[in-house]
Write a structure and sequence with these properties.
The complex is a heterodimer of chains A (226) and B (195).
Chain A (H helix, E strand, L loop, with lengths): L1 E10 L2 E11 L3 E6 L5 H8 L7 E6 L2 E2 L4 H7 E4 L12 H11 L4 H14 L15 H13 L5 E5 L7 H12 L4 E5 L11 E6 L2 E6 L1 H14 L1
Parallel strand pairs in A: 3-8, 3-9, 6-7, 7-8
Antiparallel strand pairs in A: 1-2, 1-4, 4-5, 9-10
Helix pairs in contact in A: 3-4, 3-5, 5-6
Chain B lengths: L10 H4 L2 H17 L3 H17 L4 H8 L3 H14 L2 H24 L2 H12 L8 H31 L6 H25 L3
Classes of the chains: A alpha/beta (226), B mainly alpha (195).
Chain lengths: 226, 195
């Protein structure tokens, strides 16, 4: 369970998030909203990459303020641009990076990397330089690099934004198959249509928090009012 | 280096990276310390034998020096003017051998193994040097050379479409800004993966 208690966030004088309180327990949670609405900043609070200016975030009881490292082991994060997330030059090596940080031996890393690369259809690319992969393959590699660490929750920040339709479908299937709780920030309303819960962000506040049909209807109405 | 590794099971592939790095350092030093063309020719021959031992075609040795042939041309010209053509050939022979040996290291060693080798080599200095950070910095450098070259290409193309053919400042500013933005996200990504 992720418990968000009266969270506000400021970047210097600019208010990015205002007094948000939520409890996230569902398996598939979407965060939608216009650009600059605070949704990506909110996502970064969930694993302690950013700390709130006021309020607290508890992940299974661990406060991101003082248990950042433990929280990040529980909450994996997939960034919008996989090029900024892939750290090692070779596919298999990159998957091993997070495992090395967790203290796994070289043999254990190789075994786990093999399993996750096979799961995402990337095993045949294991020796390839990561920069030659297609956009979809890079995004799958970014997801694999996070999932191999076996987090309990996965936050994905606009995982399909940079992808063509074929790659989008591939990544969507990967998200559907995730055994973890997934919190997905997205502009792709089709992607989140079957989720359990949708949070609509607007100007740093939650405009709607509901099942997909009702929440997305409210979101579309709000955007048409502008 | 970021895409040179050739998978294989040769003795050179199996050799610990630390030994290979040491051997390269020793060969490089000897190559320039021993001032005799026969020694350099011998080392070139040995290098080519090592390529075969690593089950690599000799074409891969040629690939290591092909991109810098123009530099060799300049060196040869300079030696021709200030010394003699024999010394020009000798200097190029030394550089070519060194490049082939360095290429052999990267062709037979995964970058992660190489980084671990460097990390192990620096281990005794861990009290005075941030060894893990140095090795991460090396891997990031290798990883982001192609990413940054793509950024430069994107910016250059965007400027060409707006009529700017060659303008170093106009190229540098957006490249630096994008690089800083990218570096911030990379730092977050590294944190997010438990570093």
């Amino acid at each position: 369970m992720i418990d968000i208690q009266n969270v506000s966030l400021f970047f210097e004088a600019r208010e990015v998030l205002r007094d948000i309180s939520l409890t996230l327990t569902e398996r598939r949670i979407a965060i939608v909203g216009s650009n600059g609405s605070g949704k990506s900043s909110f996502a970064r609070l969930l694993n302690g990459l950013r700390l709130p200016t006021s309020g607290d975030i508890l992940v299974d009881g661990l406060n991101t303020r003082d248990k950042g490292r433990e929280v990040r082991r529980k909450v994996g994060f997939v960034f919008q641009n996989p090029d900024n997330q892939i750290v090692f030059p070779i596919v298999e090596e990159d998957v091993g990076f997070g495992l090395k940080n967790l203290g796994f031996s070289a043999a254990e890393r190789a075994e786990k990397a093999k399993e996750v690369l096979r799961r995402y259809g990337l095993w045949h690319l294991r020796d390839q330089p990561s920069h030659v992969l297609s956009g979809g393959q890079k995004q799958l590699l970014a997801i694999a690099g996070v999932l191999v660490m076996e987090p309990r929750y996965v936050v994905l920040d606009e995982p399909t934004t940079l992808l063509d339709l074929r790659n989008k479908i591939q990544v969507r299937k990967a998200i559907e198959a995730l055994p973890q709780t997934a919190i997905v920030v997205s502009h792709d309303l089709d992607l989140v249509a079957d989720f359990d819960r949708v949070l609509v962000f607007d100007q740093g506040r939650i405009l709607a928090d509901d099942a997909p049909n009702a929440a997305l209807r409210r979101y579309v109405e709000a955007m048409q009012d502008v | 280096m970021f895409d040179l590794y050739c998978d294989g099971h040769s003795p050179l592939h199996r050799m610990k990276p630390g030994w290979k790095i040491l051997a390269l350092a020793a060969a490089g030093t000897a190559l320039f310390a021993v001032d005799h063309v026969v020694f350099s020719l011998g080392l070139l021959g040995l290098t080519l034998v090592l390529y075969r031992l690593a089950q690599l075609p000799l074409r891969r040795a040629w690939d290591q020096i092909r991109p810098v042939l123009w530099v060799f041309g300049l060196i040869f010209l300079a030696q021709l003017v200030f010394n003699s053509w024999q010394i020009g050939v000798f200097v190029i022979l030394r550089f070519a051998t060194l490049l082939m040996l360095a290429g052999l290291l990267t062709l037979t060693t995964r970058s992660s193994d190489m980084i671990e080798g460097i990390e192990a080599g620096l281990h005794p200095l861990r009290r005075v040097l941030p060894v893990a950070r140095i090795s991460l910095a090396i891997s990031l450098t290798l990883r982001f050379i192609p990413v940054l070259s793509q950024v430069v290409q994107d910016v250059r193309e965007a400027q060409k479409t707006r009529g700017l053919e060659r303008n170093l400042i106009a190229l540098a500013i957006p490249v630096v800004i994008r690089t800083i933005q990218t570096s911030e996200e990379i730092a977050d990504a590294i944190d997010a993966r438990g570093y």
